[in-house]
Design a protein that fits this description.
single chain; 488 residues; alpha+beta; four-stranded antiparallel sheet; 11% strand
Length: 488
C-alpha cells in the first residue's frame, strides 16, 4: 500500500496530454469525374439517363446539350460523379446498356488541361479598359433585366428602369465612364509657344504609343467581369456564354484574362480596330431574345386553347342518323350534339386537359427563339451558259470537283483527277472539247483519258493493242476455225 501511493501521486502530478485536434480540410467539391456520351437520341429524356446512372455510387448530375439539326438532332451528354469513384469501372458497366434501342457507349471525360487562358495584352490599355467597363456595364444591365434580377425596390414596387441602381456592382459606375482631358492647358501652351516664336506642336497624336495601364480602372473592370462569369456564365473576353454550365462536370471551367503587356508600341489604328471588332463580337449577347413577340408567334401558327378544345369536341361528335349522335371516346349514343358535348366535358375531362397541355407545349416551343430547326438549304445556282469549263473553281483546287453529274460535252465521262497526260493533238478528244491541264507526273506515267491506264509516248501508235501495257494480250481462238483466221 505504501509503495503504490507515491506512484499514484507522481501520475497525478504529470500534466495530462491534450488530444490533438484534427484539422478539417475542405472537400474538393470542384473536382469531379465524368463520362461523355457522344450521341443521345432525341427520344431519350434526361430523367431516363438520370434514373440509369443513379444505380452507381457517387452520382451527381446529368447535362445534355441542345439538339444539333445537322446531326439528326442528336445531343451530347455528360454524366458527373464524385471524385472518389472508380470511373472506369462505371464506364465499362454502361458500355452495353441500351436505352430505347440506342447504345450509350460512354467514354471517360478528361479534366480541363488549361483553365485560365489569356488574350492580347493590348486589353490593358487605358482607353480599352474604359470602353470595356462601358460594355460590361451595359451587358450586366441587359442580362439582369432579362433574368429579372434586382428589380424589387424597398417599397415592393417593380421598377425596371432602376435595375442599374439596385445592383451594387454597378454603383457609381459612371465615375469611370467619363474621360477627362486638359484641353484648356493644351490651348494655352500652344498659344504661348506660338507668341514666343516657337513652332506649334504637330496636330494629332504620334502614330505609335506605349500601352498605358491604370490600376483603378482594372480593379473596377475585374469586378464586372467576375460578376458576368459567376452570375451569368459569360466569358467576356471571348464573347461566349455557357447557358447550362451549372449542370456540366466543371462549373466555371474556363476563363480568359488579359495577357502581359506587349513589349512593342501599338498604333492608334490597332487600338481602334480592337475596340470596333470587340463590340461587333459582343453584339449577339445583347441581341439574343428568349421568346418571340405575340405578332411573330401568330404569324408562325400560335394556337388558341379554346379553339383547339372546340375542334376536339367537334371531332368527337359524330352524327349517325336522325336524332342519333355518337361519342367515339366512350361509344355511347345520344339524341343531340349538345348532350355529347356535355358528356365529353363531364366524363372525359382528362382528355380536355390533355388537349390544353398539348396546346401549351406547342406554343412554348413556338415562342422559343432558340428552338431547334432544320438548317437553311441554299439553292444551287445553275451553270451560266458559255462559262469556261474550269471557271468557278474553289481556291486551292487544281481540278474541278468529280461528281456523277460532271460530264464533258458529247456525254463523255470526265477523266480521273490525278494525271491527264492527253492533249488535243493526240486525236482522242472531239473537236471543240476543252484541253485538260498538263500531267503533273510526266507524259509517260499518265492515265489514258478514256481507258484508265496506259501511257502516251512520242512516236508510239495509239491503238488498243499497243498502249504500253506490260501484260500480254489474251487471245480467244475458235479451235474449229481455220488457222488463217483470227478473232480478236
Amino acid at each position: 500500500m505504501t509503495e503504490e501511493s507515491p506512484k499514484k501521486e507522481e501520475e497525478e502530478e504529470k500534466p495530462k496530454e491534450k488530444p490533438k485536434e484534427e484539422v478539417v480540410k475542405p472537400r474538393p467539391l470542384h473536382k469531379t469525374c465524368s463520362l461523355f456520351i457522344r450521341n443521345v437520341a432525341p427520344n431519350i429524356s434526361k430523367a431516363e439517363i438520370t434514373a440509369l446512372c443513379k444505380r452507381y455510387p457517387g452520382f451527381l448530375r446529368v447535362a445534355l446539350s441542345d439538339p444539333q439539326p445537322e446531326r439528326r438532332f442528336l445531343r451530347k451528354g455528360y454524366v458527373t460523379f464524385d471524385r472518389g469513384v472508380n470511373i472506369k469501372e462505371i464506364c465499362w458497366n454502361l458500355q452495353n446498356i441500351r436505352l430505347r434501342e440506342c447504345e450509350l457507349s460512354p467514354v471517360v471525360n478528361r479534366e480541363l488541361s488549361w483553365r485560365i487562358r489569356h488574350v492580347s495584352g493590348i486589353a490593358q490599355h487605358r482607353p480599352i479598359l474604359r470602353n470595356d467597363i462601358k460594355l460590361a456595364a451595359r451587358l450586366i444591365h441587359a442580362l439582369d433585366e432579362r433574368g429579372q434580377l434586382w428589380k424589387e425596390t424597398q417599397d415592393g414596387e417593380v421598377r425596371p428602369q432602376e435595375v442599374s441602381a439596385q445592383n451594387p456592382i454597378l454603383k457609381n459606375i459612371t465615375d469611370y465612364l467619363i474621360d477627362e482631358v486638359s484641353a484648356e492647358e493644351e490651348d494655352l501652351l500652344w498659344g504661348a509657344g506660338r507668341t514666343a516664336g516657337t513652332e506649334p506642336p504637330k496636330e494629332g497624336n504620334p502614330t505609335e504609343i506605349s500601352v498605358e495601364r491604370d490600376e483603378k480602372l482594372i480593379k473596377v473592370l475585374d469586378k464586372l467581369l467576375l460578376y458576368l462569369r459567376i452570375v451569368h456564365s459569360v466569358d467576356y473576353y471571348i464573347n461566349c456564354d455557357y447557358p447550362s454550365e451549372d449542370e456540366m462536370p466543371t462549373r466555371c471551367g474556363i476563363m480568359h484574362v488579359r495577357g502581359p503587356i506587349p513589349p512593342n508600341r501599338v498604333s492608334h489604328r490597332e487600338v481602334a480596330d480592337w475596340q470596333k471588332t470587340f463590340e461587333e463580337k459582343l453584339a449577339p449577347l445583347f441581341a439574343v431574345r428568349e421568346t418571340l413577340s405575340e405578332e411573330e408567334a401568330l404569324k408562325v401558327g400560335k394556337k388558341d386553347p379554346e379553339q383547339e378544345v372546340e375542334k376536339f369536341v367537334t371531332a368527337n361528335t359524330q352524327e349517325l342518323g336522325k336524332e342519333k349522335w355518337l361519342c367515339p371516346l366512350s361509344g355511347k349514343k345520344f339524341k343531340g350534339p349538345e348532350f355529347v358535348r356535355k358528356h365529353i366535358f363531364n366524363k372525359h375531362a382528362e382528355k380536355i386537359e390533355e388537349v390544353k397541355k398539348e396546346v401549351v407545349f406547342f406554343n412554348n416551343f413556338l415562342m422559343d427563339s432558340k428552338r431547334p430547326a432544320l438548317p437553311e438549304v441554299k439553292p444551287i445556282q445553275p451553270p451560266i451558259a458559255g462559262q469556261d469549263y474550269f471557271s468557278g473553281l474553289a481556291p486551292g483546287l487544281l481540278y474541278p470537283h468529280q461528281g456523277p453529274q460532271a460530264l464533258l460535252p458529247y456525254g463523255q465521262p470526265r477523266p480521273p483527277v490525278l494525271g491527264y497526260g492527253v492533249s488535243v493533238t493526240d486525236g482522242c478528244l472531239p473537236s471543240g472539247a476543252p484541253q485538260f491541264p498538263p500531267n503533273p507526273y510526266g507524259a509517260g506515267r499518265g492515265y489514258d483519258a478514256f481507258r484508265g491506264q496506259g501511257g502516251v509516248y512520242p512516236g508510239k501508235p495509239r491503238n488498243r493493242l499497243m498502249r504500253g501495257d506490260p501484260r500480254s494480250i489474251i487471245e480467244y481462238r475458235d479451235l474449229d476455225a481455220p488457222d488463217d483466221v483470227d478473232f480478236f
